[in-house]
Amino acid sequence: MEYRALGNSGVKVSSLCLGTMTFGDADEKSFMHQVGCDETTAFAIMNRALDAGINFLDTADVYGQDGLTERVIGGWFARDGRRDEVVLATKFRFRMGSGPNASGASRYRIVRAVEESLRRLQTDRIDLYQVHMQDVETPEEETLRALDDLVRAGKVLYLGASNYAAYRLADSLWISRTEHLARFVTLQAEYSLVVRDLEREHAPLCRHFGLGLLPWSPLAGGFLSGKYRRDEAPPDGSRLAKWNERFARHAGERGWRTVEALVAVAREVEATPAQVALAWLLQRPQVSSVIFGARSVAQVDDNLRAAALKLPAEVVKRLDEASAFELGYPYEFMSRVQKRW
């Protein structure tokens, strides 16, 4: 397993991060109903991941239902005693409970959210605490000052952003610098061969300020797993059979061209399409760790090979070209002149 710096911090994380959104049996009120795994399986998945060298877990208070996934992880810490082997990341921002202050990134919300996560996770600190999405109704300075207080109190060690617009992230970093507050060290965002929008603004911004990218949904909800084919309906029981709007979003000409190139490359390098898709991300600039999900120990084992899979430059170029997307103005203009922006 390769270990990389978490952004410009001093802590090292495995190049693959175990995403835990599927941990726990959520009921029909949750968007994760019939998508997750039971607690026993989740415990086995985490043990297998750590035994293979993965030291980075990512979760969120809203995963599962009413903090279900955090409770599952907390139960595992209590039972197996492996808390200190893990760099633990969680997130807050979305609604947890009722009332006007049960969501958002206000100081009022943050102080309550962190205590509830610590209780569910059965731990004394959160290693990477992330804002799950920017809150345009709360001044960024209020959010950052509250988070800085948590760092000073030792309840949180590092800070991260997720699902931020580039302008807001740049503003946040400037506030942290000028006000001498703890700053974000990572950006967690959707990134894959079929979702490359980050390359317009966010990836250059992360490179400039030293933030580590943490791609989520690296297989585009399974679209890049090799299960799906052009002109065929999603297989019964697959996630994209349930989430058909997401399937439709990817299943255009560019998406199928990307899948076909991915499958061809996988044959050549004797790997699975999923392993190649993960390996492609691991070779992108600024990526600290790629978050993958698993509902079984077998899926963990299947994804682990990606950490050691080094794609030749010619293969990376073919995948880049097959998945190329319209940059739009002014990025196309700048790219024609200087090849970068």
Properties at a glance:
two-stranded antiparallel sheet; 341 residues; single chain; TIM Barrel; 13 helices; alpha/beta; eight-stranded parallel beta sheet; 14% strand
Task: Walk me through the structure.
The protein has helices at about 40-50, 70-80, 105-120, 140-155, 165-180, 200-210, 240, 245-250, 255-270, 275-280, 295-305, 315-320, 330-340; strands spanning about 5, 10-15, 15-20, 55-60, 85-90, 125-130, 155-160, 185-190, 210-215, 290-295. The protein is an alpha/beta fold and about 350 residues long. The protein has a single domain (about 5-230, about 270-310), classed as TIM Barrel (Alpha-Beta Barrel), CATH 3.20.20. The strands form 2 sheets. Strands 9-8-7-6-5-4-3-10 form an 8-stranded parallel β-sheet. The chain has a two-stranded antiparallel sheet with strand order 1-2. Strand 7 (about 155-160), helix 5 and strand 8 form a beta-alpha-beta unit. Helix 1 (about 40-50) packs parallel to helix 11 (about 295-305), helix 9 crosses helix 10 and helix 9 (about 255-270) runs antiparallel to helix 12. The longest helix is centred in the last third of the chain and has 17 residues, at about 255-270. About 45% of the residues are buried.
Radius of gyration: 20 Å
Tell me the domain tally. 1
Would you tell me which CATH topology applies?
TIM Barrel
C-alpha geometry: globular
Taking the sheet with the most strands, its summary is: 8 strands, parallel
Mean pLDDT: 93
